[in-house]
Amino acid sequence: MISRIDLRGDALPEGGALRDLLPRAEFDVEAALEKVRPICEDVHHRGTAALIEYAQKFDGVELSQVRVPAEAIKAALEDLDPAVRAALEESIRRARIVHRGQRRTEHTTQVVPGGTVTEKWVPVERVGLYAPGGRSVYPSSVVMNVVPAQEAGVESIALASPPQKEFGGLPHPTILAACALLGVDEVYAVGGAQAVAMFAHGTEDCLPSNMVTGPGNIWVAAAKRYFTGKIGIDTEAGPTEIAVLADSTADPVHVAADLISQAEHDPLAAAVLVTDSAELADAVEKELAPQVAATKHVEDRIKPALAGKQSAIVLVDSLEDGLKVVDAYGAEHLEIQTADAAAWAARVRNAGAIFVGPWAPVSLGDYCAGSNHVLPTGGCACHSSGLSVQSFLRGIHIVDYTRDALAEVTHHVVTLAEAEDLPAHGAALKARFGWKVPTQ
Q1: How far apart are CA 430 and CA 414, in angstroms?
Q2: In sequence order, what E strands does 17-154 have?
């Protein structure tokens, strides 16, 4: 059901050579880019008419408009299962606690007497958020996108989610209910690359956004790449990943359940166990079969995900080697199920989010830990972060110098300008002092 990679016996290679030994899903955004390009340009030129046409082509629904009526959002909340509402409200409450603590404050540094640099943090004016609607419905993604944007102070928030034939061309009602709970009333029944294009270019119904965030399929990722530079993006999200670093103290029942929990997302989902215990590896492999048989989405998602080239049990000589492996892998979600798990977690450098010990499974982070579940995939955790309040803020430096403070440093500025053969840079200072460099 799941393959093995044995890295025991020899010294582990460094850097890219080690990454090349590890399992990873194929996710060719560049190839998809050429397919989404005409869609994005069509939305640019035809606006809402193009969106309605793509809803018919890709989602099989006939729409007269793409903006979701306010009464439909209200009705979705009124009809929501009370237990689901309570769970969403708790998810929102915990996410607000965590993200509110991330808000940065203005800071002024006195560089010299009379010379200061202040860094202030300003939210983007408008964001377009995407909530997927393919194999599963993700109201949790609505929470994870909206809460940090709101806590950052973004004034204008719009959300798009694919139209669903089952619900008369509206997004899934649980998506709409989550929007209602969060106070988001600008919602569009638009999916895929065309949703990103709508936010990037704007249409007659939807104002353009400064930024687009949210997970999606390869077409959403490709559209984000296409518009990079025109708009800000969070990340080009690929298939979800879980890596578990475990030793002989880990419970194989827990480990198997956690691997399966991410495999049920998608046939390309990655489930990776890194361990120095062959006994644990055997026990987890034995445990997978009955747990898979007892759950849902077995043939279309879980079995192909576990059997795919992106999933494996990786055997190493020691936890030190295991740490090198998980850092090279840079998982979206990394669980540490070892003795003294907190100490090992503290040494991890590359992960989207780290889950410490047996009582912090990835599923907790997906819904109710308070952390954000929009995280870097495909090894991007080595250079990128998950979605947070900072994602929606821009740092702006404010430079304030007096005449004396400028005079004190003018000779250095002039010297560096001339060293770079940019004399007009120096002249801009000389002009303020009668074209003479102030005497030091």
Answers
A1: 8
A2: 107-112, 115-123, 126-130
- Per-residue pLDDT tens over the stretch 11-20: 899 888 999 9
Q: Coil, strand, or helix at residue 350?
A: coil
DSSP helix/strand/coil, 396? strand
Q: Which tokens is 418 given?
A: 């001339």
Give the whole-angstrom CA distance, residue 136 versus residue 132.
8
- Separation between Cα atoms, residue 200 and residue 126, nearest integer Å: 11
Q: Which of 186, 236, 332, 335 is catalytic?
A: 332
Nearest residue to 127 (alpha-carbon basis) of 171, 68, 186: 186
- CA-wise closest residue to 292 among 264, 317, 329: 264
- Residues 130, 213 contacting (CB under 8 angstroms): yes
Q: What is the DSSP letter of 300?
A: I
State yes or no: is 333 an active-site residue: yes
Residue 171 has pLDDT above 80, yes or no: yes
Measured CA distances, 109 to 115, 322, 399, 401, 408 (Å): 9, 42, 10, 12, 18
pTM of the model: 0.93
Return the closest-CA partner of residue 283 out of 309, 313, 253: 253
Q: Which of 46-55, 86-95, 329-338, 431-440 has the lowest mean pLDDT?
A: 431-440
pLDDT-derived band at 185 (thresholds 50, 70, 90) equals: very high
Contacts of residue 228, defined as CB under 8 A and 6 or more positions apart, other chains included, come to none
Cα 337 from chain centroid?
A: 24
Which pair of tokens denotes residue 431?
Answer: 């002009």
Catalytic residue among 99, 265, 297, 333: 333
Mapping DSSP onto H, E and C, the string for 302-334 reads HHHHHHCCCCEEEECCCHHHHHHHHHHHCEEEE
Cβ distance 114 to 401 under 8 Å? yes
383 annotated active-site: no
Contact 153, 100 (CB under 8 A): no
Q: CA quadruple 213, 224, 219, 234: dihedral positive or negative?
A: negative
> Are 301 and 268 a contacting pair, CB within 8 Å?
no
Distance CA 144, CA 94 (A): 11
- Are 95 and 147 spatial neighbours (Cβ–Cβ below 8 Å)? yes
Identity of the residue numbered 408? E
Which of 388, 245, 241, 259 is CA-nearest to residue 327? 245
Q: CA–CA separation, 102 vs 96, rounded Å?
A: 10
Torsion angles phi and psi, residue 61, rounded to 5: -125, 145
What is the token pair recorded at 95? 């996410």
User: Rounded distance, CA 339 to CA 58, Å?
Assistant: 49
